[in-house]
Amino acid sequence: MEANDKTVLICRGTGCESAKSPAIQTELMSGLQGSDVEVKFTGCHGMCQQGPIVIVEPQGTFYANVKLKDVEPIVGSLKNGGGPVEKLFYKDPATKEGLSTYHDIPFYSRQKRLVLQNCGRIDPEDIDDYLAEGGYEGLKKAIFDMTPDAVVQAVLDSGLRGRGGGGFPTGRKWKFTQDAPSDTKYVLCNADEGDPGAFMDRSVLEGDPHAVLEGMAIAGFAIGAQKGYIYCRAEYPLAIKRLQIAIEQARERGYLGKGIMDGDFDFDIDIFHGAGAFVCGEETALITSIEGNRGMPRSRPPYPAVKGLYDKPTLLNNVKTYANVRLIINNGADWFASIGTEKSKGTAVFALTGKIANSGLVEVPMGITLREIIFDIGGGMLDPNKNFKAVQTGGPSGGCLPESFLDTPVDYDSLIEAGSMMGSGGMVVMDEDTCMVDVARYFLDFTEKESCGKCVPCRLGTKQMLDILEDIVEGRGKPGDIELLEDLAVGIKAGSLCGLGQTAPNPVLTTLRYFRDEYEAHINHHACPAKQCKELITYHILDTCVGCGLCRRNCSTNAIIGEQKELHYIDQSLCHKCGVCFEVCPPKVFSVEIRTGEVKLVES
Amino acid sequence: MEEALSEIFLQFEGKREEIIPILQRVQENYTYLPEDSMRQIARFTKVPESDIYGVATFYAQFRFTPTGRNHICVCRGTACHVRGAPAILEEVAANVGLEDEGTTEDLEYTLETVACIGCCALAPAITYNEEVHGNLTKNKVRKLIKAEAGKNGSE
Ligand SMILES: Cc1cc2nc3c(=O)[nH]c(=O)nc-3n(C[C@H](O)[C@H](O)[C@H](O)COP(=O)(O)O)c2cc1C
Ligand code: FES
Q: Do A426 and A368 belong together in one domain?
């Protein structure tokens, strides 16, 4: 047999782990024992929907949806030097053709993976893997070949902006903190990732934790801090575990701790476990929370750069912001500034989710259009027969953009202009079955619960908005509700201290701006165009029903009546509208219909 | 003072900024924050008990009643919401004998919702005793709960 330097990579991000990838790794290892094929586990490959994912390098052979029973043929093909296992290839959703390597898959080939370059390629629990990819070279260069001023200048020149949502120029923040006079300063990493429906920071922490540590250490050197904290949400146990392992290994090898790399720079990092409060993603709330208090924001100034943790100058950045830093130091500010648009440099990492074919983690150069992300990389709609309706970015602070905005370039300023925002990277795609009023209600329900209660307009205003939205989706909407929502939105935005309240009305405002007709249909016609709002829909069995009895047997309230082989009907007074009849009716027959609105009801 | 509690305190100095980590350790040990432990934490940190309650009630993670033997968290994140999380929550609740979030009287199940598990690509997702299950349908939920109940019974 010819010399073999193949490596099998198995993804063990949270997504693939939930699909039993650890067991697959064990099987692969025992199957390949004694051969010269190395088996390694990695963090997230990004294509979580197709997981568990197994990749064979150096060819880049890509196996999707690998099950335990598939391990045997994979091992067979590796041991005998045979061809790859074609039935495990990823199938192009459009052509149904199997694609053999990830280089061929549009999901990967159209991305630009910088922050994610190691995710899915290295073993996140082994520092040697990180070092082999040039790890800690940036820190070395910063400490030994650069002055703190030169580091800050490089970050300034690169044009890097904060990846936590606001997009504040990172270099300026570093400069402010560097200039603040004090012996003690802190470097904080915001890994609270509160946006529900987003997992970019989690994937970076799970897949490449050292990149974040290295960025923080470089920041510590630049601003003159000796101590860093990572504020990580408690819902991310795997991320916390991998961070802990990474911190210990970095200390052992002298990349953290006293006298880093035998120089005279000291810097160490600890993890703080968040306790489940969205508002703690806000910088001043995060700081108060570490100090052991209720995580309530305070007014700024003073900014944390001047007076932060324990009243000392404090630098706070997002996970991905820090992960970019070593790339800038290694490759130069000019290189970084050459990627992206004039005002938004570098790449953007998105968690692409919702009604999309290829859910997962993607990284694209700034300036690419929403259409390219959703249709070229994301592969279009989850159900190709459904129409695209909206894309939501920016989480509870952001907005929903309709089809006419699909050619909007993805950068900080264009998205804000369109009424949404970049946010920290959640991108949720919605199709014709998503009710936009319900989406607005969903976000208000979230912000109302998460409001810390300090500012009255935020605490009570969101409650009022939520009440109105609940009335609308439950069929009690009245003329004038829309105007009242708009009034409240203005008041809440103006009267709130922190970003939570200032942006809470955004999901309502953008849906009102682009989908006002849906609100009007709910209020004026008791109709939910997406047929989602339970109080506004009814289920009906059409006369094409063949009487198979499937729906009758599955109905939990015995609302469906009919003899076997005869036409069935639904007793509306018993129907709970769970939709199970719609789900189980055989596609060939397809006799269950959902109706909504006065007009349709009169017809029947 | 209970031994478990004093052992936890041994790992701390009793500083104000340790309150949240202490609460987390105590809850890890008891699955909730017993009334007496709150008093002890107040004494240990020399912070008024009302303040300790203030902190503990602010954060969603902390609870004051014990959890059931099986702990189910249903994700309510945006991705899960648009892919049918409300129906999943209903189904889980119905299958464990609850109306909504809460704990069953026999302490067999605790049902909670969380903002996001971070597995949004596999929406809708839940965790069952910390293990993530994704791409769920009502049918899969029913089977999962049955299978897990079977496991417990045979032990
Ligand atoms: C309510 C609220 C929640 C936030 N949540 C997060 C978060 O989860 N992660 C994050 O990095 N930034 C979050 N931010 C933004 C932070 O306040 C802060 O601007 C950011 O972490 C700074 O880092 P950057 O400059 O690298 O973006 C949040 C802000 C607000 C107002
Ligand atoms: S939205 Fe459910 S896991 Fe993120």
A: yes
Ligand nearest to the CA of A282: 1
Please indicate, yes or no, whether residues A180 and A161 belong to a single structural domain of this protein. yes
Domain span holding position A373: 347-431
Task: Kindly report, residue by residue over B1-38, the tens digit of the pLDDT.
Answer: 789 999 999 999 999 999 999 999 999 999 999 999 99
ipTM of the complex: 0.92
Q: At A376, which CATH number? A: 3.10.20.600
- Give yes or no for residue A49 having a pLDDT over 90: no
Edge to edge, the sheet with strand A186-191 lists A268-273, A227-232, A186-191, A314-318
Strands A360-365 and A347-354: antiparallel
Q: How far apart are CA A575 and CA B55, in angstroms?
A: 44
Q: Calculate the alpha carbon distances from B125 to A533, B83, B89 in Å.
A: 22, 10, 10
Terminal Cα distance for chain B, rounded: 34
As a whole number of angstroms, the distance between CA A512 and CA A378 comes to: 27
Decide: B135 in ligand 2 pocket, CB within 6 A: no
Q: Is the distance from CB of A118 to CB of A211 less than 8 angstroms?
A: yes
Q: A147 and A343 in contact (C-beta within 8 Å)?
A: no
- Calculate mean pLDDT across residues A24-53: 90
Residues A244 and A131 occupy one common structural domain: yes
Torsion angle in degrees (nearest 10) through CA of A166, A168, A170, A176: -130
The mean pLDDT of chain A is: 93
8 Å CB contact between A557 and A539 = no
Q: Name the fold adopted by B2-58.
A: Arc Repressor Mutant, subunit A (1.10.10)
Contact: B116, A199; criterion CB under 8 Å: yes
Mean pLDDT of B34-48: 97
* Residues A132 and A12 both lie in one domain: no
Which residues of chain B form CATH 1.10.10? 2-58
- Ligand 2 center to residue B126 CA distance, Å? 9
How many A/B residue pairs have CB atoms within 8 Å? 144
Interior angle at CA A573, CA A572 and CA A578, nearest 5:
65
How many CB atoms neighbour CB A188 within 10 A? 25
Same domain, A92 and A19: yes
Interchain contact, B79 vs A275, CB within 8 Å = no
| CATH class held by domain B70-152 | alpha beta
Phi, psi dihedral angles at A66 (to 5 degrees): -75, 130
Q: What is the pLDDT of residues A504-550, one digit of tens each?
A: 999 999 999 999 999 999 999 999 999 999 999 999 999 999 999 99
Output the pTM of the full model. 0.94
Torsion on CA atoms A101, A103, A106, A108, rounded to nearest 10? 110
Asked if B23 and A275 come within 8 Å (Cβ–Cβ), the reply is yes
What pLDDT digit, counting tens, does each position of A178-212 carry? Answer: 999 999 999 999 999 988 888 999 999 999 999 99
Residue A560 pLDDT > 50: yes
